[in-house]
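Internal ticket #5521
Category: modeling
Description: The requester needs a full-assembly model to guide mutagenesis choices. All entity lines are attached below as received. Residue total reported by intake: 646.
Assigned to: D.W.
Attached entities:
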Amino acid sequence: MNFAPPSSVPPVEASIQVRNLSYFFGRGDLRKQVLFDISLDLHPGQIVIMTGPSGSGKTTLLTLIGALRSATEGSLQVLGKELVGLGDRHLVEIRRNIGFIFQAHNLFESLTASQNVEMAVELTGNFRGKRQQAVDMLSHLGLAERADYKPAALSGGQKQRVAIARALVNQPQLILADEPTAALDKQSGRDVVTLMQHLAQERGCTILMVTHDNRILDVADRIINLVDGRLESDESPQQFVDSHAPKALDQKMFIM
Amino acid sequence: MQRTPLALLNLIHDRKKFLTSMAGVAFAVLLMFLFTGFKNALYDSQTQLLEQLNGEIVIINRLKENMFVPRSFARRRLYQAQAFDGVAGGYALYLSDARWKNPETNRTRPVRVIAYNPSDPVLTMPAVLALQQALRLPNTAMIDSRSRDEVGPRETGVITELADREIRIVGTFSLGTDFASGNGNLIMSDQNFLRFFANRGPEETERSFATADIGLLRVAPGTDIDRLVATLRDGLPQDVLVLPMDGPEGFIARERTYWEVNTNIGFVFSLLTTMGFVVGIILVYQILYTDVADHWSEYATLKAIGYDNAYLFGVVMQEAIILSVLGFIPGLLISTLFYNLGAAVTGLLFQLTLGRVVNLYLATFIMCLISGAVAVRKVQRTDPAEVFGL
């Protein structure tokens, strides 16, 4: 199955190009295929939401694209680099160009909001301007006054925004997010995705997000549905709602 | 601007846990200090009298394997030795154990009597030199102020019995006890020594000036001591042993080696020190492992965003080193208190030399490094892919 990019997207080079990617867990008799022959292109400026039942392989695909696992079969190009067959050391290099947002904020309780963000800046070797860069990014996310607070003094939404600041501070061209709103209330979750939407538009970066949160499907340019390790559909949110919603359900249930 | 000091901040974030961690390391340090302290005190104490003796060359009975063996040699050997070129003077030292009656409880305790001619500068401690004249009076002695409490008051003016004969204390000096000294030390003149020990009844050895226990030789300035020792060994009859005072083959080193080799002190206390070391490794490992386990997802996130294993290794090792320093300092301070207490109670010599402090710090450092190296494996095995879907 090869899904061509929607015609509305300008023909620029894809941030992510996946061709015939398969992936297996385990070895020998326990070897189990979790991804089957996936082909996919993601373009700059796109927000792509990946959905699917649990166990469908979406987190596996996300970690492969994020250079957190090494792929062995097929082709996986991220930001112009082929990841298949790359060693751990090179994978670490690739990861530095990707912004990761996790379901849990994973902030160090011992560091202030600013220091947590600075940890990411230090990866670029910019020690002199790191504080300024971190505070700028936090201000951008409305946390200017909270820069010197430790996570224990921040609300859930604020912590997730600090984690997003950490993911974005180095201005990555690719952002991978795993259930970024799952731990947040409705309003905070909405704020977070709106923010990501702005960033995709301002900076032209690609955002790939795994989520079960129906409340935020509307921010997506594309929705990819993965079932049992295979790409089942690749559609716009409207198509997705039309094809997935039982007729009795109002599409407003999904787009709020 | 520097790198964010993650290791330090992680360690001190939780104050209560941090203080507990420090106390743990300090405890391991204290254990090591106490056990090496006792070992060293027992060894050091054996030689503290010898180190006070004023002479470069020593003559003793060949059978006097250590200070505990009451073998004396013919004093004429000392005069024979003085005939050799380079020998500037020779002094005889007499030693004997005697029963000392505690004037307060009237119970007798063994003490060691050190005697010599007060005209000879055998012991050059100022307190002793100042009382040379008083020591010449009959039945007088000076008492070691660091004798054990069992001997009663250690002060000038005490009148009691030594070897069933009245004795008057005319002054005090400071030396300390060891295995051979019993409960304390007395210094008296050679004349008084004869008064007390010449006729002690049928069961005790009779002492006279014909024999001495230790012969001390002073050498003329510019003399090659090793060569003179060799000459004396050739020239004197084989019933005496001639030794230099200092050096690896010297009298002091020989005494120390005897106690090190022929007793279980070294083995027992080295074993206990090693146990302190192992306890330390386990404690520090627990501390570091807990830190890693508590921050597992944060460390995995660092790996996910592009930090490599070397960085995480560095963080855990820094934590180990910070713990080794911050635990060592209170450990050292408490140990100093215990050393002073130990010295006061036992009269043994507890020495805290710079070399010993440095050695134990190195041991602490290595202890923390080993713990760190074991704990860091947990972080290094962290699979950053697992942060997704947590």
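Resolution: model delivered.
Comment from assignee: Chain A has two domains: 14-95+183-242, 98-171.
Ticket closed.
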